[in-house]
């Protein structure tokens, strides 16, 4: 089974490393990290570099494609080279999966039209812009598409795929291997779920995400490009 | 706050990326990935490369040191250069933390003598070889040392540290930002906990880990080195 993990500058690392840690352990899995170009990409905060060992020009098929998220997916939604590659690989997959805002990239590629899907809670409504049906479940499966909620949900997604692709016993062994028996601090009870988190915390996270998006848009907009060119 | 994430060839990626995804979001955090040398290190299965942006020769202090695990920690337990560096940095930290078999490296450095600690369930008893007190809790705190269980426990560890270092509201916002509301597949109920997993699964995981360790030891032993030199 060939598993392709897509990575790009501005990725949220856990979006892809969570699923990798589960799926690369599947018997017979051949896993590869693929980026827009070969080389080290940097995460959303520039802190961590991940190696893209192949470029998208070298890979045109996969049994399982994993598209993670990060603030940079805003730009990927308009990146025709990446979207065309995702469509090309998707045509060959058994399962196409996303974590967090990776779902918006799948949606922008036209793959989720009329399908139920989820993404990070803060941008869930945006799925409808591409004709998908926003669905507030941690893992959403519609046909061969599996879309997870934000960031850490990729681990749950991958374990569900492990059950499906390799059976319950293999999945149990992988879960025990990574000792996945989560126990968030009791003091934070419910804070990981937007529906249960304190409203003040939810507003604080939204405000920070909007500020970050606005900042990225200002670098990325046609007006900013024109300004940059005229300098 | 300066946070140092130690990385090395043979690391288990989620051990370090889980804590990174939480801790790098702390207000004022300056995070850096540090390896035995600068450059890209490869994970235990060779699949993923992570960038070590600094070498241990360049860093001699941290407010928070995170030492992750992986099969390669067997060799690190005997690597005097790495152990001396860990002791040097530890002398400056507010918190020294480990995930998975990273605890055995802290223990080998002499930092856990007489202290309660945990590591991956499969090697927990080995902590006693270094005078630590094996303790079967997901996160074990003893003085400034925080040691987590296997692999995925690093996320829980980091959230607990976020509460301690930045307060409950910041920690809640980080948890919501990464949507950490874990929901392992119901079909796998309890499999992430060695005390509750089916005995057959536990034995299968132990057998595979022992086989892998034996394979690494055969490359790594003095006898193997002598054989290699005489060829």
Précis, in short:
The first copy, chain A, has eight helices and eleven strands. With 231 residues, the first copy, chain A, is α/β, with parallel strands linked by helices.
CA(first)-CA(last) distance of chain A: 50 Å
For the record, what CATH class of the largest domain in chain A applies? Alpha Beta
Mean pLDDT of chain A: 93
Low-confidence runs of at least 5 consecutive residues of chain A = 222-231
**Content of β-strand of chain A:** 15-25%
Number of strands of chain A: 11
Query: How many individual domains of chain A?
Result: 2
Question: What is the strand arrangement across the widest sheet of chain A?
Answer: 5-2-1-6-7-11-10
Protein chain pair with the most extensive contact, residues per chain = A-B, 68 and 68 residues
Describe what you observe in this structure.
The structure is a homodimer of 231-residue chains. Chain A is an alpha/beta fold and 231 residues long. Chain A folds into two domains: 181 residues, 3-Layer(aba) Sandwich (Rossmann fold); 46 residues. Chain A is 38% helix and 18% strand. Chain A contains eight helices and eleven strands. In chain A, the strands form three sheets. A seven-stranded mixed beta sheet of chain A has the order 5-2-1-6-7-11-10, with helices on both faces. In chain A, strand 10 and strand 11 form a beta hairpin. The first copy, chain A, starts with a strand and ends with a helix. Chains A and B meet through helix 1, strand 2, strand 4, helix 5 and helix 6 of A and helix 1, strand 2, strand 4, helix 5 and helix 6 of B.
């Amino acid at each position: 089974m060939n598993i392709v993990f897509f990575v790009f500058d501005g990725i949220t690392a856990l979006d892809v490393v969570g699923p990798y840690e589960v799926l690369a352990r599947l018997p017979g899995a051949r896993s590869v990290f693929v980026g827009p170009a070969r080389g080290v990409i940097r995460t959303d905060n520039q802190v961590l570099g991940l190696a893209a060992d192949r470029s998208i020009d070298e890979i045109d098929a996969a049994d399982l494609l994993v598209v993670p998220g990060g603030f940079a997916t805003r730009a990927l939604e308009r990146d025709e080279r990446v979207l065309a590659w995702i469509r090309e690989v998707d045509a060959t997959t058994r399962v196409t999966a996303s974590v967090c805002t990776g779902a918006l990239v799948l949606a922008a590629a036209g793959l989720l039209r009329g399908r139920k899907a989820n993404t990070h809670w803060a941008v869930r409504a945006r799925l409808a812009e591409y004709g998908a049906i926003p669905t507030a479940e941690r893992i959403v499966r519609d046909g061969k598409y599996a879309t997870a909620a934000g960031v850490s949900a990729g681990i749950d997604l991958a374990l569900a795929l492990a059950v499906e692709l390799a059976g319950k016993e293999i999945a149990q062994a992988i879960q025990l291997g990574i000792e996945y028996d989560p126990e968030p601090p009791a003091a934070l009870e419910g804070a990981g779920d937007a529906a249960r988190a304190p409203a003040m915390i939810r507003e604080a996270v939204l405000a920070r995400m909007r500020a970050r998006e606005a900042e990225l848009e200002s670098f990325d907009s046609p007006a900013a490009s024109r300004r940059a060119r005229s300098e």
